[in-house]
Amino acid sequence: MENIYLDNAATTKIDERVLDAMLPYLKDSYGNPSSVHSAGRQVKVMLEDARDLIAEFIGARSSEIYFTSGGTEANNFALKGLAFAHLNKKNHIVASPIEHSAIRETLEYLHYRFGFEITYTPINKYGEVDIDFIKDSVTDKTLLVCVMHSNNELGIINDIPAIVNIAKEKNIFVHTDSVQSIGKVNFNVNEIGSTTATISAHKIYGPKGIGALYIKKETPIDKLIHGGKQERDRRGGTENIPAIAGFKKAVEILKEKMDKDINHYASLKKRLFSILKNDFADKIIINSKESGNSLNNIVNISFNPQNTSVDADTLLIKLDMNGIAVSSGSACTSGSVQPSHVLKAIGCDDETARSSLRISFGRENKEEDIDNLVDVLSKMIN
Ligand SMILES: Cc1ncc(COP(=O)(O)O)c(C=O)c1O
Fold first, then answer.
1. Helix or strand holding residue 49 (H, E)
2. Which of 22, 70, 96, 111 is most buried, judged by most C-beta within 10 A?
């Protein structure tokens, strides 16, 4: 049985070339980039090349890129860093209600521990934030607007430049979690205009445990990780050099392949949408937007409770037994299965949210993978 991996929004398979690029830094090139001897300096050259490349890829300056241990740390750094640098000055944050837990939990922490007031924006049925609401809810006390560039469960893309336009009139910062967008759509910080933006390497065929935060120059932000003077004294700790070498390679490959990748995801999405609409119209509700401001690699579906009785977690196990990996719309929290907050926020009831699947395409997927998935789904529904 051939394994079919359709969970690329969770993580991607590391590219062989990425692995090859990492190995020398796990073996012979083991110097500490902060050391002045040649073993250290040689590694420092790679570190700064990686920074230059990642900066160029998103239209930033090299000095605006800070390596972190991944998307979660980068999101924590942005939110806590901005909040702590402005404690007792501004205490209001406007955020999308369907952010990743790395943002949600950090916002809750800032609220309960430091009294930040958080206003959550309404969203439409695709998960897009209400820009007019943001305009009406910002005040002189608003420090930050935090809206993800694209959503990891639905694939919807938000209009961050429009949010930046509102924010800049009042000197408000904008953080955008762009983890799912990098490599799936053009993402250029000059066009987006946000103050900070998050990247994670394992979503782009790179290694896990490495990411970066873009911080616009001259942004007053506190350190999150205290320690040495690494990362221009903004993030302590010896840099994860092998992972950064892999991250660099992943971005090099992306530079070459991104257009092809995007077209590939688009054709897989088109095929899946067309089969679902033609053959499963009364049984499956598609939660993702078909085109326009939506990622091509994520399709979220729910089983219509009126015509089917499908529990996504059982389905997930059955799909897994058939060699197919996808994600469900629920997560096991504290021993109980909770429906996804994202699906609930777009109006799904608990039952529908629990019977949802996220299918996310990657470079290696073929059209047959879609057909196989649909085949298994159809047998299970019927
Ligand atoms: C939108 C989004 N933000 C942040 C993260 C966290 O990134 P990492 O796994 O690198 O900590 C993820 C990962 O699933 C994500 O999808």
1. helix 38-57
2. 96
Residue nearest to atom 16 of ligand 1 (CA): 152
Indicate the pTM of the whole model. 0.97
The list of the chain residues with pLDDT below 70 reads 330-337
- pLDDT at position 308: 84
Q: Give yes or no for a contact between 362 and 15, defined as CB atoms under 8 angstroms apart.
A: no
Q: Which among 126, 46, 141, 71 is positioned nearest to 290, based on CA atoms?
A: 126
Is residue 100 in contact with ligand 1, taking CB distance under 6 Å?
yes
The helix (run of H) or strand (run of E) holding residue 92 is strand 92-95
182 burial via Cβ count (<10 Å: 0-12, 13-18, 19+) = buried
Residue 152 beta carbon below 6 angstroms from any ligand 1 atom: yes
Residue 325 has a pLDDT of: 96
Atom of ligand 1 nearest to the CA of 209: 10
CA-based angle 199:205:210, to the nearest 5? 40
Query: How many whole angstroms separate alpha carbon 307 and alpha carbon 296?
Result: 28
Distances (CA, A) of 53 to 188, 205, 239, 322: 13, 16, 17, 40
Query: Quick check: CB of 72 below 6 Å from ligand 1?
Result: yes
Q: How far is the CA of 21 from the centre of ligand 1 (A)?
A: 23
CB 124 within 8 A of CB 67: no
Give me the half-sphere count of Cα atoms (radius 13 Å) on the Cβ side of residue 99: 30
pLDDT tens, 124-139? 999 999 999 999 999 9
Residue 119: enclosing H or E segment and its boundaries?
strand 117-120
Q: What confidence score (pLDDT) does residue 330 get?
A: 64
What domains lie within the chain, and their CATH numbers?
4-11+257-381 (3.90.1150.10), 16-253 (3.40.640.10)
- pLDDT recorded at residue 185: 98
Are 250 and 244 in contact by the 8 Å Cβ rule? The answer is no
Which of 79, 98, 103, 200 has most ligand 1 atoms within 8 Å of its beta carbon, as the pocket-test mutant? Answer: 200
Q: What is the pLDDT of residue 332?
A: 54
